[in-house]
Amino acid sequence: MLQYASNLNLSDCYGKIGVPRQLVITEDPTSIPRAVAEAGLTLPLVAKPLVADGSAKSHELSLAFDQFALSKLDPPLVLQEFVNHGGVLFKVYIVGESIKVVRRFSLPDVNKCELLDTAGVFRFPRVSCAAASADDADLEPDIAELPPRPLLERLARELRCRLGLRLFNMDIIREHGTRDQFYVIDINYFPGYGKMPGYEHIFTDFLIGLVQV
């Protein structure tokens, strides 16, 4: 689904949207280093389970720092280039025409020294879950600032049309050190709306609107 967001031109909406380069690995972990090299992906890489079945493992992310560590990963999975983003992501819930955004803690930034001195795979269970809310955290203003509303509205409208979905959410990050460069790093259809603040009224209004149409 991220492919639908990768070719959108939303530069007129107070920000730019991109998708980190990624690669799907379905089997044979020993082939991962070669596949990554052939695809030209840059380390470190985020490894995400390909199947989201609600289990704890399906919510676990890994960060691989070197080529040797790649062969220790457990396919099937998606490898995605890591983008520093201040350790905070924006979870954007779409319910019909409604948009709700919450802040969640995410993977920490990786500086150049850490990239040179760190090896192996680091695992992060349940990143960005509801318990990792950053809405009330004392964050730097440039990290805490939400994506521009016009950008989210245009993005949601385009994805609704391209995906044919009216119930989905997105994980969006702002590249650290920039104000208007955003990346969509994940899209989920029919997510757990119980984690969205005020979901009862928003979801009820959506269902009533469907009946009235």
TrEMBL record:
It holds the Pfam family Ins134_P3_kin. InterPro entries: Inositol_tetrakis-P_1-kinase (IPR008656), InsP(3)kin_ATP-grasp (IPR040464). Residues 14-208 form the Inositol 1,3,4-trisphosphate 5/6-kinase ATP-grasp domain. Gene3D superfamilies: ATP-grasp fold, B domain. Its cofactor is Mg(2+). The keyword Glycoprotein does not apply. It comes from the Eukaryota. One of its GO terms (biological process) is inositol trisphosphate metabolic process. GO terms for molecular function: ATP binding; inositol-1,3,4-trisphosphate 5-kinase activity; inositol-1,3,4-trisphosphate 6-kinase activity; inositol-3,4,5,6-tetrakisphosphate 1-kinase activity; magnesium ion binding. This is Inositol-tetrakisphosphate 1-kinase 3-like isoform X2. It comes from Phoenix dactylifera (Date palm). The lineage of its organism: Eukaryota, Viridiplantae, Streptophyta, Embryophyta, Tracheophyta.
